[in-house]
Amino acid sequence: MRPVFVQFRCEPGKTYQVAEAIYDREIVSELYSTSGEYDLLAKIYIPEDEDVGKYLSEKLFDIPHISRTLTTMTFRAF
């Protein structure tokens, strides 16, 4: 499993609705509300044999009221 971090910018007033929809998908290991440019930060473990972009697009990015995402790939834990 390969961990990635995804930040979500939500439409105004829709952050809690988006967070609930993300949790309903049961694929995030952690989900936080954040300050700054993005509203939510998720840690997601992607199976090694999956394409990251396709996996995230099919599992998360169709949730309504997400206006932007930023995905950070990880390579090695220290």
Model description:
The protein is α+β, with helices and mostly antiparallel strands and 78 residues long. The chain has a single domain (2-73), classed as Lrp/AsnC effector binding domain/regulation of amino acid metabolism (RAM) domain (Alpha-Beta Plaits, 2-Layer Sandwich). The chain contains two helices and four strands; from the N terminus they run E-H-E-E-H-E. It is globular, with a radius of gyration of 12 Å. The model has no long low-confidence stretch (mean pLDDT 96).
Strand fraction equals 35-45%
Rounded mean pLDDT score: 96
Q: Which CATH class applies here?
A: Alpha Beta
Order of helices and strands: EHEEHE
Give me the CATH architecture, please: 2-Layer Sandwich
Extract low-pLDDT stretches: none
Task: Please write out the topology.
Blueprint: E1 2-10, H1 15-24, E2 28-33, E3 40-46, H2 52-59, E4 66-73
Antiparallel strand pairs: 1-3, 1-4, 2-3
Provide a short characterization of the protein structure:
This protein has helices at 15-24, 52-59, and strands at 2-10, 28-33, 40-46, 66-73.
Quickly list its features:
Alpha-Beta Plaits; 4-stranded antiparallel beta sheet; 2 helices; 4 strands; alpha+beta; Dimeric_a/b-barrel; Lrp/AsnC family transcriptional regulator; globular; Tscrpt_reg_AsnC/Lrp_C
